[in-house]
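Let's sit down with a protein and look at its sequence and fold side by side. Please make up or recall a protein chain and show it to me in full. Label the sequence line and the structure token line clearly, so we can match residues to local backbone shapes. Go ahead whenever you are ready, and we will take it from there.
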Amino acid sequence: MKRLKQPLYALLIILFLSIIIPNSVGSKLKGFVVHLFSPVLSISSGSSNWLHTRANNLKNLGSLHEENAVLKERVISLEQQVLELASAAQENENLKAELGITNRPSSDQTVAANIISRSSNNILGEALIDQGSNASIEVGQAVMAQGVLVGVIKEVYANNSIISLVNSPNTHIQALLTDTQSLGLISGSPTGLKLTEIDQGVEIKEGEIVQSSGLGGTIPRGLLIGEVDRLISDASSSQQEALIRTSINFDQLQLVFVILRTPPL
């Protein structure tokens, strides 16, 4: 406070002298007084500028805090949008894969169903879906996922059904080797899908496509099952056996399509 009072006293003295001293006599004296108090006046001006600068800095700091808060909110919002877009993109990819059922006749009608539980026993190889007879599902109908045959309807209730998955030893599906048009039987095994009951004289090639034959039930012909991985039988056997490679991860199945109608063979 003392620093601020000194410039004020100097200003008052200069003002008083300018009033009482005639111009003709006191011009030099006035100049001398102004020169004498010029350091004080300089301090006053500097103090005023300093206060003004500090005030502007505080004002700018407040604005920066407000802008920072707004930017933080925008960053949080953008991060949330990125997460939502990533989730939507993954869901879109899953749906595109599921809808890619190009290995069945286009005349077939299907019902989409979610897998809501699956058996913990690998021998059973069963899964429960959230659609049943109210959606026209019947026992024996084929079940697809990602364009691949994954099972057959085993039991049906009003709003639920049980699928017997193709990787179960209890599931048996008539299959066809597409290159030789030779018949076999698909079933599950501890080592994966297995194609059995193939005549010994049939030449089985690694990578050969295996499809449903359309024989022995309500499963349409031409549904993709997988491709030949390797032979597991020897020349002394009366029939050949081969392991079949599938693109399906049965532990991660979530959405399936039940084929309602079987076209005439």
Summary: Residues 23-98 form the longest helix (76 residues). The helical segments are 2-20, 23-98.
